Each structure stands twice: as C-alpha cells, then as structure tokens.
Amino acid sequence: MGPTYQKMDKIKAENIPPALFNVYKKPLVFHQGHMQWLFDHDGRRYLDLVGGVVTVSVGHCHPKVTAALHEQIDTLWHTTNVYRHPKIYDYVEKLVSKFSGDLKVVYLVNSGSEANDLAMILAKAYTGNSDIISLQRSYHGYSSTIMGLNATQSYRMPIPVPSGMHHAMVPDPFRGIWGGCRDSISQVPNSCNCPGDCITSDKYVHQLSELLDNSVPSGRLAAFFAESIQGVNGVVQFPKGYIKKAYELIKKHGGLYVADEVQTGFGRTGDSFWGFQNHGVQPDIVTLAKGIGNGFPLAAVVTTKEIAAAHNKSYFNTFGGNPMAATVGKAVLEVIEEEELQQNCKETGKYFLEQLMELQKIHPVIGDVRGKGLMIGLDLVEPGTKQALNMADSSVIQEMVKDLGVLLAYGGKLYNVVTIKPPMCINKNDVDYAISVLDQVFDFYKKNK
Fold first, then answer.
1. Which whole-number Å values give the CA distances from 316 to 80, 106, 196, 313, 333, in the listed order?
2. Are strands 417-420 and 366-372 parallel, antiparallel or unpaired?
3. 3-state secondary structure of 380
4. Residues facing residue 260 across a β-bridge
5. Per DSSP, what are the bridge partners of residue 375?
6. Which of 185, 209, 323, 379 is buried most, with the most CB atoms less than 10 Å from its CB?
7. Where in the cell (predicted)?
C-alpha cells in the first residue's frame, strides 16, 4: 500500500533533502519487519545486520513491545512532563536499576543528539567551565552545537561552531600510528598481545595530555566525551587501558567524563550491560538513545544528583518521557532480561567474530576484523595493503550482499568498514547464512578484481 515506486522517486527528487542520499542503486522499499528480518514491497525477505543503525535492539515489531505500546495508545498518548503519569516513574525506576553508584537521575529526551547536547549543558553548568574534548573521527549527533563535538568531516558543515571544542588523537589499533591490542578475540595482524593494559595506551594518553597542556586553558575543562566503541567511525575499539587512563587524566584536570552509550549500551557488547563497564570506569554522565526504544523515539541522560542540582533553571521537554515512550522503554528492558539478549550478544557475537576471522584468512580484501558482542567491524582494504578499499568497490560489494538477501551498513572515515550491528535476537543460523553470503561475494570480488 502507498505510492508507487516511480512516485516515490519523484517525491524524493522534489521534496526530500538531497543530504538524505540513497544507499543502493535501486533503493529498497520496506513495508514490514519481524525480529531480525525485513520485507520489501515485493515480499522479499532480508536478514537485517544494520538494525536501523543500531536502533532495533530486541527485534523488529517484537510482540511484547508491540503489545505494550498498543495498550498504552488506547489509554494515554501525551500530556506534558510537568504533569505526572505512572509510566515515566515505572520506567525510570527500572532504568536506574541498571546503573551502579550515584548514577540515579534521569532526563528523558527524544534522540542521541538531544541527549549529548543536554550532557554538554550539564557539564558546563556543574564545572563552570566551557572547554570540551572529544576524540577524532567521533560522532555524537547532529545539531549546531554537537557539530563542534563531532570530529568527522562527513558531519561537519562549513559553519561556525561554539568555541572551546577540542579533538584528541583517536587511539586506533589498526590505523593509529602506534597500533595496539584491544578487548576483542580478534586482533590486528602482528599486533602486540599485552596481558593487561596495552603498551600503546600510554602513548595515546600522552597525546591527550599534550592537548590538555597546550590547547585547553588551564583549569577550564568541562568534560571529555567518548563512545565506549566508536560506532560511526567503523567500530573502532581503543587499546586496552586507554579509556581508564584518559578518565584519570580528565579527572585530574577537573573535567567530567561523559560516556556516549548511544550505540554500545543495553548489553550489545555482551560482557556488560553498558560499554563503559568494559573499561572499568564510572562516568559522571551517560547518554543513551537508539536501542533504548527499539526504534521508538526515546533517549536519556543519566547523571548524579549533584550534577543535576547545578541545572538550576527551568527545564521542559515537550515529548521527553511521554507515556508511549516510557512504556516502550520499560518493555525493551524486560525483553532484554527475559530473553537473555546480553548473553546472546556475547555468545552469538563471539561466533560471528570467529567465522569472520576465518574469512579473513582466505579473503585479502578483509584487512581487519574487530568488535565485541554484536558490535562488529570489517575493515575492507586494497588487498595486500592497509589502504582503504575504494568506495566504488565497497558499493559493489554492498549491492551484491543485498541482492543475496543480507543488509549491511558501512562506516569509517573512508566508507570502507562493514559495520554489523543487528537486532540482538539473531542466532547462529543467521550468522551462518550471512557468512555464506559474504564468502560468495568476496570470492566473486577476488576472481573479478
């Protein structure tokens, strides 16, 4: 049902911003989803390894989440968060139970961009400072303020951004100047294999120290923002020990540590519910979005009472924490627990990584396999080099994989990293299917290159 394919093309050309570009030569039109599967307008089924860009956490149209939303829609849609309704209290109580220590105050908002923007306000209000550090090639959202926090050219418009934004060297074990080893069963070929913290972490932290000592006004640091694993940059994991040492350095300089868990949260990395727990640190502020609502508009900022108290002006969010969003959020948390999806991420993710490592042995186009749980990156290269595979060939591979019934996304500075972040309900049979498709496509590429 709906407009014809040809009419959609016309509407796209005339009414949709050109910045929203088509991924495929012939764009897909989806009309239905169920768990890890999507169905196009012709009824063809696709294994979804994109998850709406890490947003569909427990599965498309999960029965329990869908039923909870239907019941709430028939009861109450929206009032305003200046009034009370029970769903927001039920949800916030369950959400904070997932955090330890003093992380007990929750702001409910609508998107990751909104969450990170609010986190910046809180950090500046609490510290009285305005300088903020993020990592090169990071992505934290899209607004006139957040654009300054991003260090990715694809998302930087040639317009002024707020002053006081600084970007530290990204500690990248595959493409970084010192390499390194990471918290993954898959390491960069010929990398170090340190039993504890990686020896390169000190070198990357020294670069952060240089930035603090030379570029940030003394005593004026508000916060350090970091994703637990860089998502848009192609699932870049940091050398072991980097985040913990960076955290200690930031605290020494009086700044807050903001953990961006928009992609890594809710059990996706397998070993822990939150990505920052894998680094052995306790953030001052945590931002959440995407998988928090399984595709429903919902995001959150979690912080301490002390930091929230510094937010001493009136605050109002029209849709944040509305009855429908709170209902969905609570149902998502219940499904993650009841279906043991964090454990599934750990076991199925490990299996996926192992199979991809086997592919890497026979397909030289795979330069690096990395990731943790069901957050995986496949760095495609010009065979025999570390040079990123050209975009034309990357696009051909993506098209062929799609034609065989599997959906993949790309990330990284040069759009050459296959990013695998599916609904957390996928199983080993799905992995075998995906590996079979990738093997066929990479084999074809090798023979026809």
1. 9, 14, 45, 10, 25
2. unpaired
3. strand
4. 227, 287
5. 372
6. 379
7. Mitochondrion
Res. 155 pLDDT band, cuts 50 70 90:
confident
What H or E segment, with its residue span, contains residue 301? strand 299-303
Instruction: Tokens for 401, please give them.
Output: 């994989």
Tell me the C-alpha distance between 69 and 25, whole Å.
35
CA distance 136 to 134: 7
Q: Starting at the edge strand that comes first in sequence, how are the strands of the sheet with 366-372 ordered?
A: 366-372, 375-380, 417-420, 409-411
Strand partners, 418: 378, 410
By the 8 A CB rule, do 229 and 335 touch? no
Question: Does position 297 have pLDDT exceeding 90, yes or no?
Answer: yes
Q: Does an H or E element contain 173, and which? A: none
Helix (H) / strand (E) element for 324: namely helix 323-338
Reported pTM: 0.96
User: 3-class DSSP state for residue 367?
Assistant: strand
**Measured CA distances, 420 to 9, 51, 411 (Å):** 28, 9, 10
Instruction: Provide the angle, in degrees to the nearest 10, between the axes of the packed helices 323-338 and 86-96.
Output: 40
Single out the residue of 194, 285, 203, 284 nearest to residue 245, CA to CA: 203
Exposed e or buried b per residue across 378-412, where buried means at least 16 C-beta atoms within 10 angstroms of its C-beta: bbbbbeeeeebbeeeebebbbebbbebebbbbbbb
Q: Provide the edge-to-edge strand list for the sheet that holds 256-260.
A: 105-109, 299-303, 285-288, 256-260, 221-227, 131-135, 165-168
- Single out the residue of 10, 5, 127, 55 nearest to residue 328, CA to CA: 55
Residues 323/72, Cβ–Cβ less than 8 Å: yes
Q: Distance between CA 26 and CA 307 in Å, rounded?
A: 49
Burial class (CB in 10 A: 0-12, 13-18, 19+), 319: middle
CA distance 293 to 325: 7
- Note whether 147 and 161 are within 8 A (CB): yes
Q: Which of 166, 115, 158 is nearest to 138 (CA)?
A: 166
| Angle, alpha carbons 443-444-448 (nearest 5°) | 120
Backbone CA torsion sign across 216, 218, 219, 220:
negative
95 membership: H or E segment, kind and range: helix 86-96
Pairwise CA distance, residues 215 & 210, whole Å: 8
Amino acid in the structure at residue 414? L
- What is the greatest pairwise CA distance in the chain? 64
Chain segment 16-68, per-residue pLDDT in tens: 999 888 888 889 999 999 999 999 999 999 999 999 999 999 999 999 999 99
Give dist(CA 398, CA 146) in Å, integer.
30
pLDDT single digits (tens) 390-427? 999 999 999 999 999 999 999 999 999 999 999 999 99
